[in-house]
Backbone:
């Protein structure tokens, strides 16, 4: 008789129990793309404090977590709503000194995570020399001379987050995670390997037999994953290509609401605090999972 | 000059000037908030540089995108019809470090100084941000690698064109002269184009040098609105406007005016 495989499924409200105050949390997300937003809303509702958040390019997730008082440090290379401007709460909190913006360049942050993923103390790069970022991080970025050629490089010290949280297209109950169209974003390539634990929210949980039909799509084999949570539309309002595009109208509406506290509070209550289930949230935002006419299978 | 030519906006002039820097041999990169670079690429592709290479969002190679209908430019809708999707960590960043493939890099910021250092991070000090801005993103990485860099700025004022930036998000020529070379950094910025004028860099001092002033603006105004004294040669020309057809192309690519940036 074969031993039963470990079932790593858990509900969203139990998944946030993995997050404790003071923890470093690596969150997937580049601007308005592939951010585990259902998980973020749950974190906000739980009101977990003193988190050290690590993300490449922050957007609405960083802004909501800042408003909720969840983070005291943000490590990343940008926080932006691109054409629509800066993240209002994050900007204010940094200016008031309640949140520290620990700013890296994109690739020095990638190298720090990759160093942890490869289990080496640092990774050198030609990038970022001469920037204020390197100058202000003597403990984690340092100009060094290559021991063989003497060439100047920047050593990026390993960064090992306590927990990485990602959103992907599908997984089986054992945690074999598939992403379309394969792993192109930096987070998928370095965050899971760098972090001590890995939690993945997915659009759907499928049987192992479905995963086996396309093993080339598996970006994280089960032994790299500690927990999986099924949350359809879990990246909304950010996009999950090719399943659905970001909801640009929602993002703009949020920013417009942030211009006065009353409108903002109504928006925030209605979209973040009140919906107690993902279904209720998706109803409120008129989420259409077939927005690109593709569904989550990406076929 | 026809009536619509008089109405060419600062953004449309910037797009026009940037597109003229591109050729079939260009390999261009776009990332966050790249509405203006994307439109300059689109204009060049539809006119004099149909075979240029565009790496959209550091992922999608040569996408079939002919219209801008979003204010978020680091995203898959701008990768449609690509010939390849590059993994950012596995393919893109190693590639830009190992050879001079990307030969056109277009960036902006909140401050640009007289030696082409760009700040998109903060006003004040790193540990005490009076104004918190976006962050250095990938421009600090690329800036150290030194591809020919075209700086664009939609609001040319003494607050944006400053003697020295508060923070170097993307290194230019530091304090000028040979400092960049002395530090072992190759290349560097080659041009600044704003809503008022075009500058290049004086080869010895690496200080910004006024090259041309856009129609509808004059030299005195440009100098008055610049927070330092640029090099001003005897012959400052007038920037060639886009022409009726190209202006129409820009507006057709971007009917909802994503090219305008918040102030």
Residues:
């Amino acid at each position: 008789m074969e031993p039963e495989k470990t079932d790593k499924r858990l509900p969203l409200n139990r998944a946030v129990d993995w997050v404790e105050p003071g923890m470093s949390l690596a969150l997937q997300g580049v601007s308005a793309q592939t951010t585990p937003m259902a998980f973020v809303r749950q974190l906000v509702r739980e009101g977990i404090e003193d988190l050290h958040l690590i993300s490449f390019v922050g957007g609405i997730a960083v802004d909501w977590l800042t408003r909720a008082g969840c983070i005291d440090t943000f490590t990343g290379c940008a926080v932006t709503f691109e054409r629509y401007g800066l993240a209002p709460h994050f900007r204010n909190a940094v200016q008031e000194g309640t949140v520290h913006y620990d700013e890296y360049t994109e690739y020095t942050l990638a190298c720090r995570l990759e160093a942890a993923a490869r289990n080496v103390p640092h990774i050198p790069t030609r990038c970022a020399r001469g920037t204020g970022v390197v100058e202000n991080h003597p403990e984690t970025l340092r100009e060094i001379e290559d021991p063989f050629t003497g060439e100047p490089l920047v050593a990026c010290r390993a960064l090992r987050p306590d927990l990485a949280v990602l959103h992907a297209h599908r997984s089986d109950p054992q945690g074999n995670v598939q992403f379309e169209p394969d792993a192109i974003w930096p987070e998928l390539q370095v965050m899971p390997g760098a972090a001590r634990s890995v939690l993945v929210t997915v659009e759907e949980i499928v049987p192992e037999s479905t995963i086996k039909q396309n093993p080339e799509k598996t970006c994280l084999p089960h032994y790299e994953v500690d927990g999986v949570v099924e949350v359809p539309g879990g990246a909304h309002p950010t996009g999950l290509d090719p399943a659905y595009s970001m909801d640009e109208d929602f993002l703009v509406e949020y920013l417009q609401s942030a211009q006065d506290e009353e409108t903002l509070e109504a928006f925030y209550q209605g979209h973040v605090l009140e919906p107690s289930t993902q279904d209720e949230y998706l109803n409120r935002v008129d989420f259409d999972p077939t927005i690109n006419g593709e569904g989550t299978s990406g076929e | 000059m026809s009536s619509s030519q008089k109405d060419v906006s600062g953004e449309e002039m910037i797009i026009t000037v940037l597109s003229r820097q591109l050729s079939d041999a260009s390999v261009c990169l776009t990332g966050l908030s790249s509405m203006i670079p994307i439109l300059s690429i689109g204009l060049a592709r539809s006119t004099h540089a149909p075979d240029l290479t565009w790496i959209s969002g550091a992922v999608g190679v040569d996408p079939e995108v002919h219209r801008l209908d979003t204010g978020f430019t680091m995203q898959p809708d701008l990768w449609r019809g690509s010939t390849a999707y590059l993994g950012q960590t596995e393919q893109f960043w190693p590639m830009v470090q190992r050879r001079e493939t990307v030969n056109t890099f277009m960036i902006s910021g909140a401050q640009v100084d007289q030696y082409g250092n760009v700040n998109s991070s903060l006003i004040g000090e790193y540990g005490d941000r009076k104004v918190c801005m976006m962050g250095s993103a990938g421009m600090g990485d690329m800036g150290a690698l030194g591809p020919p860099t075209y700086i664009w700025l939609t609001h040319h004022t003494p607050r944006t064109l400053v003697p020295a930036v508060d923070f170097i998000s993307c290194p230019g020529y530091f304090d000028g002269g040979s400092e960049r070379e002395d530090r072992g950094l190759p290349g560097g910025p080659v041009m600044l184009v704003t809503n008022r004028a075009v500058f290049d860099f004086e080869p010895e001092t690496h200080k910004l040098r006024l090259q041309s002033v856009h129609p509808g603006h004059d030299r005195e105004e440009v100098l008055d609105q610049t927070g330092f004294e640029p090099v001003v040669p005897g012959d400052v020309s007038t920037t060639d406007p886009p022409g009726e057809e190209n202006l129409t192309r820009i507006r057709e690519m971007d009917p909802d005016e994503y090219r305008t940036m918040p102030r």
Summary: DSSP finds eleven helices and 14 strands in chain A. Residues 293-299 of chain A have pLDDT under 50 and may be disordered. The radius of gyration of chain A is 19 Å. The first helix of chain A runs from residue 12 to 15.
